[in-house]
Amino acid sequence: MKIAVPKETRGGERRVALDPDACRKLVQAGAEVALEAGAGVAAGFPDAAYEAAGARIVADATALLGEAGFVLKVQAPQARPDGTHEADLLKPGALLLASLFPTRNLDAMKRLAARGVTAFSTDCIPRTTRAQAMDTLSSQANITGYKGVLLAAVEFPAYFPMFMTAAGTTLPAKVFVIGAGVAGLQAIATAKRLGAAVTATDVRPEVKEQIESVGGKYVGIELAQSAQAGGGYAAELSAEDKARQAKLLAEHCAQVDVVITTALIGGVVAPKLLDEATVRAMKPGSVIVDLGADGGGNCVLSKPGERVETGGVTILAPTNLPATVPRAASTLFSKNLLNFVMAFWDKDGKAFRLDWDDDLQKGCAITHEGKVLHGPTLKALQA
């Protein structure tokens, strides 16, 4: 089977879908692997490293995508600088594996379906024990939480840790993390390692022990109804619980120095948690890092990809943070993809095996044989 890895075309994307180590394992399994020239350079992987792993380097992206039976990518197919669209370049009937975020990339999903591509989206893989090693949402969110705290520490006009000097003592920064999924837990742990006093909240009170295990102090409300959506995701709150949570957030944000928001509904959509009044009530010099920016942002004043100052409060809304740590992010992402491919690899036929009786494949299949299979994406396309 011919497996192709193109260079990512989204602006600022420095990751690559396959690192040399995973490439070597696919070649050993019998796959023919080809990469677009320079695909891994921004992540610190030169073409020579892939050639040493047994891959072929192809200069022409159109030829690369047109001959591949299976394409591995980081991002959903995009329009290329020459005006062509990657989805339109794929061979009819080809397989695609990437973090597609299909409801955010509806045009690409329509193109993939029209092309007859069988597309699997790693962000839609069911959150089961078996799928943990394939879960790109978790592996990349871990990086997002880590890098978000570093950005906050750079922006904050004081120290994170307590320092005792001859000139006096500086107290530790008070950091409040909203959302205790993978990104939130990593943010708590990183802020704690930097010496901050960390509090955290989540609409799922059952994560209290996880918050405390990484050094945070839990604050929260008693919910009138469960906010657990299944698979470890948070569900949307009732109107009553939203009001009570908003009151808690406003009161606590006014007391801290740094707020880091990581909340996502279903791992995709960012609920609006911080309104303008909450931001205005924060102390001058405070910092908000909105890690929900890729999903629209948790703060109403956030501008994804931009830095905003209002009333003495700085709001950062970074997008695609994993791309800013490209080597580590690519290595983890690559292992996720490799684990998915090898879970369905036919050793005798040396090819990927479609199995529609398997819950993992069914759960993350977005398009197949000209149809959109993914319910939320289909609903969005019909709206």
From TrEMBL:
Task: List the Pfam families hit by this protein, alphabetically.
Answer: AlaDh_PNT_C (PF01262), AlaDh_PNT_N (PF05222)
Please tell me the species this chain comes from: Geothrix rubra
What does this chain do? The transhydrogenation between NADH and NADP is coupled to respiration and ATP hydrolysis and functions as a proton pump across the membrane.
Lineage here is:
Bacteria, Pseudomonadati, Acidobacteriota, Holophagae, Holophagales
UniProt cross-references to CDD domains, sorted A to Z: Rubrum_tdh
Q: Any idea where the Alanine dehydrogenase/pyridine nucleotide transhydrogenase NAD(H)-binding domain is?
A: 153-317
* InterPro entries referenced in this protein's UniProt entry, alphabetically: Ala_DH/PNT_CS2, AlaDH/PNT_N, AlaDH/PNT_NAD(H)-bd, NAD(P)-bd_dom_sf
Name of the protein in its database record: proton-translocating NAD(P)(+) transhydrogenase
**Has the keyword NAD been applied to this entry?**
yes
Do you know which SMART domains this protein is assigned to? AlaDh_PNT_C, AlaDh_PNT_N
